[in-house]
């Protein structure tokens, strides 16, 4: 094997060494969401695995360029929504009642393919009967009805 013998500690070359100053000093960066749109650092670094809003609509550039454009577009959309939300409801005012399109006490809508709580071990009845008040009754209460 090749061996190298270093003599430690190293010898001092100059009496007054000049401190190193980086050409690009470290900057404390804020989140890209809160940076100004003109800031050149308003982007995510390549390899970032988190969600970047509005990036799915942009293609054909480097990742920092795409995320910069997406963040600027997202901020512009946020500014528009702030203008729209200026109309607030006063304290004494009541909101209109929300109308239900499909009554919840009649069971699930036909052709519904999503999750129905407590439906896993239920069988022998129609879909409407098994899903009647799916959110209100427990499986034991449903079995006791039969």
Write a brief caption for the model:
With 146 residues, this protein is mainly alpha-helical.
Q: How are the secondary structure elements laid out?
A:
Layout: H1 63-84, H2 127-131, H3 139-145
Relevant terms:
about 0% strand, mainly alpha, 3 helices, elongated, single chain
Helix content bin: 10-25%
Overall spatial form: elongated
The biggest sheet, with number of strands, parallel, antiparallel or mixed sense and barrel status, is: none
User: Helix count, per DSSP?
Assistant: 3
First-to-last CA distance: 84 Å
Uncertain parts? none
Task: Round the Cα radius of gyration to an integer and report it.
Answer: 32 Å
**Category by helix and strand content:** mainly alpha
What is the number of E strands? 0
H and E string? HHH
- Taking all residues together, what is the mean pLDDT? 77
Q: Per DSSP, what share of the residues sits in E-state strands of 2 or more residues?
A: under 5%
Overview of this protein structure:
It is built from three helices and no strands. The chain is mainly α and 146 residues long. Among the domains are: 32-83, no CATH class; 116-146, no CATH class. The model has no long low-confidence stretch (mean pLDDT 77).
